[in-house]
Design a protein that fits this description.
The protein is α/β, with parallel strands linked by helices. It contains 12 helices and 11 strands.
Length: 266
């Protein structure tokens, strides 16, 4: 098989078991260390301020960046305003989705987006998807960390942007597998590493730094075959001096594993 017994590190969290099985099917020896968890923000004053403005028709556009955030936002608002309040408000404005995950969450709400960012579903494709639209008063549901480049680009186009965040990225509750991944990387034990979201390298570097092995870990990582799910993750890796070996032809986990294995065979 393509990986031919190579030791492959992955940092996937929600689909860790699936990732491990995909690597095994390609002949690799997986070590999957969850690198993050989505931590709900307990204080929702900002979300409720956004909701008051949404229900008062102060927004012309709602940009949804993640499926998790869309569902969490709906849950928070449903508890105070009713089960259909969020969906009812979205149907009155232009809704933009950054790819298939927020589209799926919108489908559950019975909402059809006015625009969807095409693959690889980064903020750049999102900007292209709304090129020429007239809406200027917009709200952006962010993911676990703020995307300053997107917000600046929207404002440069004349957008009046309100940010809404309902969760943030945290380290996994059990960070020991991630710490072990950093140690094993520093020791040169992995042949390949697969990254499926930008925050994974941030948290991996943090745990290595806490153990005093960040430089050794990054040096060893640069010698690995590196698979990056897409441009946003690649940019994060490059900030740490890591140049990915490949991005998959489509930003899907299964395709990432398959094409990384093919590259390993080559």
């Amino acid at each position: 098989m393509a990986f031919s017994g190579m030791r492959v590190l992955a940092l996937e969290s929600r689909r860790a078991a699936e990732m491990a099985e995909l690597i095994r099917r390609q002949g690799g020896e997986p070590f999957v260390a969850p690198a993050m968890r989505e931590v709900p923000i307990e204080e929702h004053a900002g979300v409720f301020r956004f909701a008051d403005r949404l229900f008062a028709a102060e927004f012309e556009m709602m940009i949804l960046l993640t499926g998790v955030g869309t569902r969490q936002l709906n849950r928070v608002l449903a508890a105070r305003y009713g089960e259909t309040a969020f969906a009812d408000a979205l149907r009155k404005i232009a809704v933009v989705a950054r790819g298939p995950k927020p589209v799926a969450a919108l489908r559950e709400l019975g909402v059809t987006p006015a625009a969807v960012a095409p693959e690889p579903n980064t903020w750049r494709e999102l900007l292209q998807a709304i090129e020429g639209r007239s809406e200027r008063r917009m709200a952006v549901q962010e993911y676990g960390r703020s995307n300053g480049e997107l917000l600046e680009a929207l404002r440069a186009r004349g957008g009046e942007v309100t940010v809404v965040r309902v969760y943030q990225y945290g380290l996994p509750e059990n960070a020991e597998p991630l710490c072990e991944a950093a140690r094993r990387l520093a020791a040169g034990e992995f042949h390949a590493a697969l990254f499926t979201t930008a925050v994974q390298i941030v948290h991996l570097a943090y745990t290595a730094r806490e153990q005093g092995i960040e430089d050794a870990m990054l040096t060893a990582l640069r010698r690995c075959l590196i698979g990056s799910i897409g441009p946003t993750t690649t940019e994060a890796l490059e900030e740490f001096g890591i140049q990915p070996t490949l991005e998959p032809s489509h930003p899907k986990m299964g395709i990432l594993v398959k094409e990384a294995a093919e590259r390993a065979r080559g």
